[in-house]
């Protein structure tokens, strides 16, 4: 049989009104756009993937966001997942043209689940990440409700049932966040992560709330997540993704080797302040 | 040494942007070859590809790439790097369709078996590649090396026994990289495989015919 798939470390970048921000409970707290260069996010080369999500309230900043995606794709040579304001296949095409390898959709899929299948048909399931924002709700069979519109709009859908339906429709991966845990520095909601990871047949990416490297390991060990994502924590810690990766490896998790190869890239685009 | 003139073969279907972005980081003169005549003065040829085998071969034929590749790579010995579908095109054909491939390597591309006891198809994600001591392309790398894969079809080792330079295991062992004379091809995506992938591209750009 196949060997065990390696657990991925994913860096999440949230873009609000054209700036990179940190969030807490889905509300932008501070702008880290200027800290961009200090962040080794993109040049320690240890992160396995990058997710970049547009979280503005309005569509006004989408053109700027596309430029950001394009800029990232020119200097980040790992798979790039792009999400935000995806309501039709055309937007998926725009993002893939700008350099996205995968797209992540959330609210529009809750409103019209068939969109998942439409995108999967044209781009393949490997391209479709369905992002689920869940919130504890004792009235739901699984104890969690999927919420849309950046955590604000209750969908009436049970989070576990929605995850299963999304996979059925063609989601290749689930990105899972719990609204109260987002930016709250108490680790992932491990009950939620475990429940969804055990239920679906596709990889689950845990996101939201990472405050220490142990949280990443817990996401995999206790939450059974296939991949672990974090955003805020990476912004102000030097060599953060490298440290996170080393911590995961030291804890005994199978992760991608971080062999450093010296590669001269004289024409690699330099940082462009967005 | 002057910068290599690299032609990236465009057959209208595949998103070649990531490959071009990656190559653009190096001292190289990159041309996007929209038809076969654009391969004429290339010192290196890269054929990336994501998509289906038949549609890809049709695109290559319609744009005169098949003839041009034959002339430049096989007859003139210009170094070639095939990526993903650009590896699969080298074979006689593929289980994915009925089109004839370039036929430079004997045998057919096969599909990963599906079933409850089989790993999921497509094979997406990072996986280890065992590098053969004979590899030039990956000679600077530590084996096994991690590369990023996205595919449902693969080159069986039975057809590539003598030329496989990288082997990956996904339920079964398959040919992840091959090297024969001036022809090299990889099933994984070096342009998405971070420093390891960039090292491979850097190595290829230093190859001279």
Q: What can you tell me about this protein's structure?
A:
The complex is a heterodimer of chains A (274) and B (209). Chain A has 274 residues and is an alpha/beta fold. Chain A has a single domain (8-250), classed as Alpha-Beta Barrel (TIM Barrel). Helices cover 31% and strands 25% of the residues of chain A. Chain A has helices spanning 62-75, 89-98, 107-111, 114-123, 159-169, 190-199, 213-221, 232-236, 240-250; strands at 8-16, 19-24, 27-31, 49-54, 80-83, 102-105, 128-136, 144-148, 153-158, 173-178, 204-207, 227-230. Chain A has an 8-stranded parallel beta barrel with strand order 1-4-5-6-7-10-11-12, surrounded by 7 helices. Chain A is globular and about 55 Å long. The relative contact order of chain A is 0.17. The model of chain A is unreliable at 34-40 (pLDDT under 50). By secondary structure, chain B is an alpha/beta fold. Chain B has a single domain, classed as 3-Layer(aba) Sandwich (Rossmann fold). Chain B has 6 helices and 12 strands. The longest helix of chain B is centred in the last third of the chain and has 12 residues, at 194-205. The radius of gyration of chain B is 16 Å and the shape is globular. The mean pLDDT of chain B is 94. Classes of the chains: A alpha/beta (274), B alpha/beta (209). At the A-B interface, helix 1 of A face helix 1, strand 7, strand 8 and helix 6 of B.
Question: What is shown here, in short?
Answer:
Chain A has 274 residues and is α/β, with parallel strands linked by helices. Chain A contains 9 helices and 12 strands.
What tags apply to this protein structure?
heterodimer, A: 274 residues, 12 strands, globular, B: 209 residues, alpha/beta, Rossmann fold, 6 helices, 23% helix
CATH class of chain B: Alpha Beta
Tally of individual domains of chain A: 1
By CATH, the superfamily of chain B comes out as Class I glutamine amidotransferase (GATase) domain
Residues in helix, % of chain A: 25-40%
User: How many helices of chain B does DSSP assign?
Assistant: 6
State the assembly state of the protein chains: heterodimer
Percent of residues in β-strands of chain B: 25-35%
Question: How much of the residues of chain A is beta strand, in percent?
Answer: 15-25%
- Please summarize the sheet with the most strands of chain B: 9 strands, mixed
**Shape label of chain A:** globular
- The CATH topology annotation of chain B reads as Rossmann fold
CATH topology of chain A: TIM Barrel
Q: Helices and strands of chain B, in N-to-C order?
A: EHEEHHEHEEEEEHEEEH
């Amino acid at each position: 049989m196949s060997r065990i798939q390696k657990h991925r470390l994913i860096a999440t970048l949230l873009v609000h009104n054209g700036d990179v921000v940190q969030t807490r409970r889905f509300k932008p707290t501070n702008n880290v756009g200027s800290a961009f260069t200090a962040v080794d996010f993109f040049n320690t080369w240890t992160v396995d993937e990058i997710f970049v999500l547009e979280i503005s309230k309005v569509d006004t900043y989408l053109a700027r966001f596309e430029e950001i995606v394009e800029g990232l794709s020119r200097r980040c040579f790992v798979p790039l997942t792009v999400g935000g304001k995806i309501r039709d296949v055309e937007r998926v095409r725009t993002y893939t043209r700008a350099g996205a390898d995968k797209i992540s959709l959330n609210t529009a899929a809750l409103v019209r689940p068939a969109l998942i299948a439409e995108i999967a048909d044209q781009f393949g399931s490997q391209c479709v990440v369905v992002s689920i924002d869940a919130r504890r709700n004792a009235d739901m069979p699984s104890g969690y409700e999927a919420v849309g519109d950046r955590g604000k709009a209750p969908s009436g859908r049970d989070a576990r049932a929605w995850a299963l339906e999304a996979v059925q429709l063609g989601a290749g991966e689930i990105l899972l966040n719990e609204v109260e845990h987002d930016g709250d520095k108490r680790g992932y909601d491990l009950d939620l992560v475990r429940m969804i990871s055990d239920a679906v047949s596709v990889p689950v990416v845990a996101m939201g709330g990472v405050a220490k490297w142990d949280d990443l390991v817990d996401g995999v060990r206790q939450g059974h997540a296939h991949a672990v994502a974090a955003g805020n924590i990476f912004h102000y810690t030097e060599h953060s993704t490298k440290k996170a990766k080393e911590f995961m490896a030291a804890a005994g998790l199978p992760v991608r080797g971080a062999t450093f190869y010296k590669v001269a890239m004289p024409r690699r685009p330099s940082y462009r302040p967005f | 040494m002057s910068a290599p003139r690299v032609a990236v073969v465009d057959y209208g279907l595949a998103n070649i942007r990531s490959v071009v972005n990656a190559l653009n980081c190096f001292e190289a003169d990159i041309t996007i070859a929209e038809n076969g005549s654009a391969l004429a003065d290339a010192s290196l040829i890269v054929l990336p590809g994501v998509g289906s085998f038949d549609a890809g071969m049709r695109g290559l034929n319609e744009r005169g790439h098949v003839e041009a590749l034959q002339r430049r790579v096989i007859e003139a010995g210009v170094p070639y790097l095939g990526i993903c579908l650009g590896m699969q095109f080298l074979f006689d054909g593929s289980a994915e369709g009925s089109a004839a491939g370039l036929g430079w390597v004997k045998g057919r591309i096969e599909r990963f078996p599906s079933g409850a006891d089989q790993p999921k198809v497509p094979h997406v994600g990072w996986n280890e590649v065992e590098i053969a001591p004979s590899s030039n392309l990956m000679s600077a790398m530590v084996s096994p090396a991690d590369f990023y894969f996205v595919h449902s079809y693969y080159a069986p080792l039975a057809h590539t026994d003598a030329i496989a330079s990288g082997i990956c295991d996904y339920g079964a062992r398959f040919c992840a990289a091959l090297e024969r004379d001036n022809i090299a091809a990889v099933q994984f995506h070096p342009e998405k495989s971070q420093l390891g992938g960039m090292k491979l591209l850097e190595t290829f750009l230093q190859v001279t015919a």
